[in-house]
Specification:
about 450 residues, elongated, single chain, mainly beta, 14-stranded mixed sheet, ten-stranded parallel beta barrel
Amino acid sequence: MKNIPYYLGFFILILIISCSSDDSGDDSGNETDPQELDADGLPVVLFDVQLPVNVNDQEYIIELDRWDIPNNGTDPLKTTTNLQAAIDWAHEEQYSRVVLPSGEYLVGEDKTYNYQGGIELHGDTEFVFSEGAVLEMDTNDKWNYCVISLNGDNITIRDGVIKGDRDTHILTPRDSDGKTAHDEGHGICVWNTSNQVLVDNMEIHSVTGDGSLILESNDVTFTNNTIYNNRRQGISVVGGVRIKITDNEIHHINGTAPQFGIDIEGAGRVDEDILIQNNYFHHNTGGDIVNTSGKNVFILDNVMEQGDGSTYVDGPIVSWHRTHNIIARNTITMVDGSENGRLGYIQYSGGGDKGHSLVTYVHDNVCNSCGMYMYKSADADVRRNKFYGYFLSFTEFDNAVLVDNLVTYSEDHPNLRFCWSYRFNDVTGFASGNYLGDNLEEIPLSETEPYTLQCVLDGW
């Protein structure tokens, strides 16, 4: 991802203007596409992510002696060649469950001037790590690698450790431009030939790029994994439909931009029907979740912590103007903010048509020492959130619905009192039941006449 210019952060803090709302979706003067809502007024998750299924009950435990496979962390070329031969044979013999015995498997094969190969899994395979099994990429100087790459549908990977070569990687300049980002070294590559994929109970760490890359795949589930200490991302979704990321811990992503826990960035591909729920994010330098291209993205029930000693670049949750998000019941804690100030959620925009008529929902979130800001867009339903110690803000925004939110002052930041708490510039919508501390805040939003707060007009 190419980060939004960071001067916007300073601009936002000086010129920002905040929040608006509507007491029900049909109070809006703008027409929006209908969505099925639950009892709390939140869109219902209507898509199902298909899981892999075992095609038979045949299991093969890889015979290390038979295939002459080292499991002591030595001889990567021999390990790669012979382990791949065992996996290929098991697939040809129609074993659906392949078990890797305990041990340390150092892999890596020189494929091209820019790519280091690892292990490839075929379709209709459940690949299981025995307790203590570690698959590690050998030290290399390549821009790209996959410790495990997938070639086929209906694949499960579970119960093991994948380790990259981050600590020993050789950052050789690329011939074409002399750059040394080397940011495409991945733990698991879910390619466009692989659908119905499950990654369960894996530890994926220390790669030079992303813990996992999802590229133009459908029905992919990541659950119960720990993903950390990767240079670029925890998980990158670069074209994905029906993606489910639940109950993972993603932390200490740092090294080369964008440095997010999860990055949805299709770059012209389709990203749609994505559920990110019940994950724990912390110490991620860029931020925790960024959505640059996804539609119908549910961000629910996650815990996001900046973490002591960590510095955010963008912030915990970031979306772009043309995306569609449902952000609910998350708990976000910031320490000292980011380039954008202490914004737990920020929606970037260059203005213009957002490309759809769906509403962005921001419901029931708790933002500790942080707030939210949306600008140059339309259609947001913001309800029952608690923003402790920062502000809620909208600029150049149509149809902002703001109901039953709470904003409080911060004793640590006295300059954010008064009109910093709820800020608006050129905003239409509806507001009701919003509090500033213990006091009901009257916010005179209109569905037809844009509203700007007087202190903004005064340049305060």
